[in-house]
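Anyone opening a protein record will find just a pair of labelled lines. A complete record is shown below as an example.
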Amino acid sequence: MSKNEINGTVELSIGGGVFPAQAKVAISVARRFGTRSAEVLQPSVDALGEDGLSARLQASEEIDVLVARAVLAGGATSHAGKRRLLAKVVQKAVLDDAEIDQSLLIIEMIEQIDSPHIRCLEDIRRAELRAQASGEMGVTARGAEKPITDEVSATVRKYPEMLIRRLEGLGLVDGSLTWDGITVITGTTSTGTLILQELHNVDL
């Protein structure tokens, strides 16, 4: 879209350019959104070229929708790690049909979390590791319930309940609801740990 097209669209959306100051701000915001979105596409463009990527998207509606979701999520986040992970997931999907399902699942998950959720999840994971290192949390068999520890409990108390409930609802942390409505968190789930690993180990 050209600069004139952007200007026209924004002016039309706010009433024919009656508020030029607001239009200028809106255009600036839209450009920054576009820049962040472009980060998600760039590795795929590098791999296939613009024409190759365009042909790939036209040939597969499933991949087209996957990329659209990732681009929107990338434009709407300030978390650079999230954008890099979205870029990695998109690149995998456009290069290999076998990656589409896994890529969709990851996109669906990280669409629903942003910087506050990621910071909280990282903090809980660090507390869990401290509890393990100190012996407060012993070795837990796969699938077994983790014990409640002071390290994790103290960390969880630092965050709003709505944030903790969100992570628990997404299956990123282990939690249970007590009789009086308090959510007790024992640590991260395997999915939560995987998402953190993916965010920290993006190699494009």
Remarks:
- The chain has nine helices and two strands.
- Residues 11 and 23 are 6 Å apart (CA to CA).
